[in-house]
From TrEMBL:
Similarity comment: family membership: Belongs to the FliM family.
Record bears the keyword Membrane: yes
Species of origin: Rhizobium rhizophilum
Compartment(s) of residence: Bacterial flagellum basal body; Cell membrane
InterPro entries in alphabetical order: CheC-like_sf, FliN-like_C, SpoA-like_sf
Organism lineage string: Bacteria, Pseudomonadati, Pseudomonadota, Alphaproteobacteria, Hyphomicrobiales
Reported function: FliM is one of three proteins (FliG, FliN, FliM) that forms the rotor-mounted switch complex (C ring), located at the base of the basal body. This complex interacts with the CheY and CheZ chemotaxis proteins, in addition to contacting components of the motor that determine the direction of flagellar rotation.
Protein's UniProt name: Flagellar motor switch protein FliM
Residue span, Flagellar motor switch protein FliN-like C-terminal domain: 232-302
Keyword presence, Membrane: yes
Amino acid sequence: MTEVHSETAPRMDRALLAKLTGGLGDSHTLQKLCADFGQLYIEFLPDVFHSETGLTMQVHYNGHESGLMTDLVADLGDNVSLANGQLRNWSPNFVLACGNSFVITLMENLLGALPETIQEPIERPLSQIELDLAVMVYDKIANVLRSGVNASGGFEPLLEKAHNAEDRLKPEEDHVDEYGVTVKLGITLGPVDSEFYLVIPQKALLKTVVTMPKSKSQTSKSKKEWQEQIAEQVRRSQVTLEARIRLESLTLATVSRLIAGDVIPFREKGDVMVDVSANGKDLYRCEFGRAGDRYTVRVKDNVSTEDEILKHLMS
């Protein structure tokens, strides 16, 4: 019998293949292109925000990182929100990210907080309402991007819903990673310094010519319109309500001996009143009842005005 030996051809090095196919650039080229993006945002993003919010902020370029896209996104850490994006005729898969402290501080400013009361926020994920504001922030960042890259057709950027880093979906098992760069940009609003990021595939970046738009007046919305837009986002946001019913007071000895099946009576003898709250603030006084097989509460009185409720839920 004749033995047949089959040998598998060695796989080409990933980095070498990327260089040969235009997906990995040299350090000098990447440095120049990323610095061009930095200059674009330094020139235009503060004007965009000032024209729409009346707020003064500074943007500065903090350098860049090169690597695989998945690793670059993971390296941004947990204290950011992110949005996947695409721009026709430029890139089908770039990522925008922004430090949570900027979005939180922007929300405080738009709600009229006094400058002396604004401090560096604690590190935490954004609430749903803050994520709604982040959508508008990413829209401005993406539009500056569109205005400065040589994408033909004048198409608008398409952004997916903003999400916290902890909620980002993991890549599929068959996902083929590619090389990218993270353009890092510092942003200062009042006493708070933060960063935002562009994570761009190198295949798109290396074909890009960054140009400065002729006009800086890219937007016309006023601060009032932004506040109204935020308020509308709040009205559409889902809010978890909590209902508290006052029970009869019991001695500690009695409480310590309660077992499954014991009954604690309501404090009220007639209509049982319920305090309904959201985010720790009392909103309504309600009457406890039942409809079919479901327990219900009927609103009897407003503890807070509509404006107070909206302000509280946005903060």
